[in-house]
Amino acid sequence: MKLSELTIKEFLVTVSGASPTPGGGSVSALAGALSASLCGMVARLTLGKEKHREAWKEMERLRDAADSLSSRFMELVDEDSAAYNGVLAAFRIPKENRAAREEAIQSATREAASAPMETLRAAAALVDLLKSALYLGNPNCLTDAGVSLQLVRAIANGAAYNVRINLSGIKDDRFKSTLASETSELLARIEESLKEMERFVTDRLERTY
Prior knowledge:
Blueprint: H1 8-15, H2 24-46, H3 56-91, H4 98-136, H5 142-167, H6 173-206
Helix pairs in contact: 2-3, 2-4, 2-5, 3-4, 4-5, 4-6, 5-6
């Protein structure tokens, strides 16, 4: 059974088990699905509200994009664990088959770096959706969008951790340099946007008391 098909309780039990998968990469992806789902909720709680009519078109776009991204994050929950399981399998190849074993390890490790890289890219896409949810969505959903915002930070950093730990075992310098550079660029861009949105949330909350 896929991890994405487990109940919440089953997933938590599986994470807490003695296996290295699912681990931080899959958990980061699951957080992405939760964050995107919150954006979808904001969109649905804005649509149909007459006083927010001017935002309906954008909320329809947000709803559909958030649903799609949430589904993508759930795919990444499984992809991340499968990629690392591939690394474990490669290391189990007998050392007598040195060349084949090393090739398998390198290939699997590239996959293990690529999966969280996809999660980080999805987190960057989620930032754009979050802007619509926060700035144009129903103001009563401010803290829901705020929670989504905080999840994005955890998703991005968690995914980046997993990219970088796997890059350390890769010998392909071009591959390493490309992913390392993209990781740093995406993290910086995401954090800059999140800080701006965080100030918006804080300012709105301070007006309520």
